[in-house]
Design a protein that fits this description.
Layout lengths: L7 E4 L5 H12 L3 E6 L2 H13 L4 E5 L5 H14 L5 E4 L14 H29 L2 E6 L11 H21 L4 E8 L5 H10 L3 H11 L8 H11 L11 E4 L6
Parallel strand pairs: 1-2, 1-4, 2-3, 4-5, 5-6, 6-7
Helix pairs in contact: 1-2, 1-8, 3-4, 4-5
Length: about 250
């Protein structure tokens, strides 16, 4: 039996892409998984995949930027699955534009989902972690944290998550809680397809161009990220905290 068996994990933005792959992977590690997204019906295919493999999962609708909804969602997870001690803050949105074209709403929406959302979710779940004296937090950053044209909001939010992560590691370490960030490179998701659309190029063209720049000569898939998250939330990763792990096919990050 996996050492993770019996743990309860919460994954936000888990209806699709990296979040969905992470939820399925953590379930295969033996965890019960709360699959959170704006629409709980969109989470059902992930829940069904977990249950078909013999795992336990719960679909929960939650706007991570809303404090009341976060509190309600986390309370429901605790009541129906058990105390959550693993949190993956993956929920994210894009509102790409050049600085001079970016609206206040473009900025605020990205900050609310990525930064405020991670803050609210972590504040709610850490209460269970500190009580259990064990916890794992993984925040999804990005290589865009290092700067990316047309993403001043997204880059700022992802860089902010790195500082957030390091401070969590300092504050929560004495309670047996670790916090780390994962910074994906180019991964095939709906978000990167939206980027191609914004750029006005076929996704296949963008994918090929990106693969040619990446040392391993391929782009990432959601499972690449899920494997790294799986390690960081494992029992064996208890001495890894406050780190940013770039998963980008090379050292360009």
């Amino acid at each position: 039996m996996s050492p993770s068996a019996g743990r309860v994990a919460v994954v936000t933005g888990a209806a699709r892409g990296i979040g969905a792959a992470t939820a399925v992977r953590l379930a295969s590690d033996g965890m019960a998984v709360a699959v959170l997204d704006l629409d709980d019906k969109a989470c059902l295919p992930v829940v069904e995949a977990v249950e078909a493999a013999g795992g336990r999962a719960l679909a929960v609708a939650c706007d991570v930027s809303d404090a009341d909804r976060v509190a309600s969602a986390v309370a429901r997870v605790a009541a129906e699955l058990g105390p959550p001690t693993v949190l993956v803050n993956n929920a994210g949105v894009l509102r790409d534009n050049l600085l001079f074209k970016m609206s206040d709403d473009d900025w605020d929406t990205v900050m609310d989902v990525h930064l405020r959302g991670a803050f609210l979710m972590t504040r709610a779940v850490q209460a269970y972690m500190t009580q259990e004296h064990w916890g794992r937090i993984v925040n999804l950053s990005s290589i865009s944290a290092l700067g990316n044209r047309g993403q001043v909001n997204y880059s700022a939010a992802k860089a902010g998550l790195q500082g957030f992560t390091k401070t969590l590691a300092v504050e929560l370490g004495k309670f047996g809680v670790t916090a780390n960030a994962v910074g994906p490179g180019f991964v095939v998701t709906e978000m990167t397809r939206a980027t191609a659309q914004r750029m006005g190029v076929p996704f296949e063209t963008l994918e090929q161009e990106m693969a040619e720049r990446i040392p391993v000569r391929r782009v990432g898939v959601p499972e690449d990220i899920a494997h790294v998250v799986s390690f960081l939330v494992s029992e064996q990763a208890g001495y890894v905290s406050g780190q940013v792990v770039y998963v980008s096919g090379g050292p360009q990050a």
